[in-house]
Amino acid sequence: MIHSLYSNKEIFLRELISNASDAADKLRFRALSNPDLYEGDGELRVRVSFDKDKRTLTIADNGVGMNRDEVIDHLGTIAKSGTKSFLESMGSDQRKIASSLVSLA
């Protein structure tokens, strides 16, 4: 199933952009209680760039990032950026605030 979904270039690209957006939303939520997480730059970005000569497409964000284990767990798994488990790990009050900031994937 994953191979058939990811063979569709539009779905694959949409999933990568969605994951980047989720990472930015997670940083926005975490920064509510710790503004230093913005590291002096509170403008969250998702950047899509194309290098015609190298024939590469790059999706970059300045969100929370992933450690090695998260990359292994989530990369290649459609509709799984870790957002659902991120929200489930919070208390109910935090979850209410976060659900307005982070879309469930």
UniProtKB/TrEMBL annotation:
Domain Histidine kinase/HSP90-like ATPase, chain residue ranges per copy: 9-80
PROSITE patterns named among the record's database cross-references: HSP90
Xref: InterPro entries: HATPase_C_sf, HATPase_dom, Heat_shock_protein_90_CS, Hsp90_fam, Hsp90_N
Keyword Nucleotide-binding in record: yes
Keywords: ATP-binding, Chaperone, Nucleotide-binding
Record Pfam families: HATPase_c
GO MF, one annotated term: ATP binding
PANTHER family: HEAT SHOCK PROTEIN 90 FAMILY MEMBER
UniProt similarity note: Belongs to the heat shock protein 90 family.
Name of this chain's protein: Chaperone protein HtpG
Organism whose genome encodes this protein: Salmonella enterica I
